[in-house]
Prior knowledge:
Elements: H1 14-24, H2 34-39, H3 41-52, H4 57-90, H5 100-129, H6 134-154, H7 158-174, H8 179-190, H9 196-216, H10 221-230, H11 238-261, H12 264-286
Amino acid sequence: MTTAIVTQSSRPSSRAVILLMAALLLLLSACSSVRLAYGHLDWWMDRTLNKYLDLDGAQKDLLQQRVDEFHRWHRQTQLPRYADYLEELAGKVDDADTSPTKLAAIEARVDAFWHASITMLSDLMLPILVQLDDKQIDQLSENMEDEREKSLKKWDKAQRKREKEFRKQAERWLGDLTGAQESMIDRQVATTTFDPKRRDAQRQLWTAAFLDTLRNKPQGYEARLRALLIDPQSLWSDDYRKMQDQLRAQARTLATEILESATPEQRAHLKNTLLEYAADFRHLAAQQH
């Protein structure tokens, strides 16, 4: 609910690095300047959360305070970790091992980064959520349904858009793609196992559990809400988990294929880009706000 962030993980690889930065930049990859975008993270988070929550004056003040706290914590404690890791990855761009198994280990590292941030954010937001009255919970439910419908409409035109996004992100990290690499991406999109209807069903299951807990406040409900925010995968069905595992496996296979086909120029571009992001993160971490 709080932040619908996307994907996760990576390293010397187009898709893998895309996944990494998608998590690390908290949806800021569309911005041309990391420093500029990150400077507006608190505004973006506040705006996104207010899109879902109908808060009164005191609650809005608390929300702004908690968003600022998260931004400060993330800047001071997380960005240096990201910079260290990106520099580590930059030093491994020319490693021979670009297997899916290697990329899976990198995914696990980035998942840990993501978990730390979502845990901190959930702990800061939970005191606000438990203050919501029945009217505010009804409005939250309505807002979540509106966002769900918008999401479903987007998937009607998804495949071509996904092809463009894959290329855009791959070019961000590798520079100009070869024809063979573009074909790899096209094939990945065309053969993906992703089913938006199954994702939607899973999201509805999570939403129902979250809103029911928020409304009825059973014994231990705060711990239950926290668990739902931090680990929504706990509600995944075996079928949906299998689909997600397949998607990750496909992404690693594509990453391996593209990395193995990368030219010396593309590897140099990747290394430089990783180091540039690391430098940006260090610069931001050193700022007071």
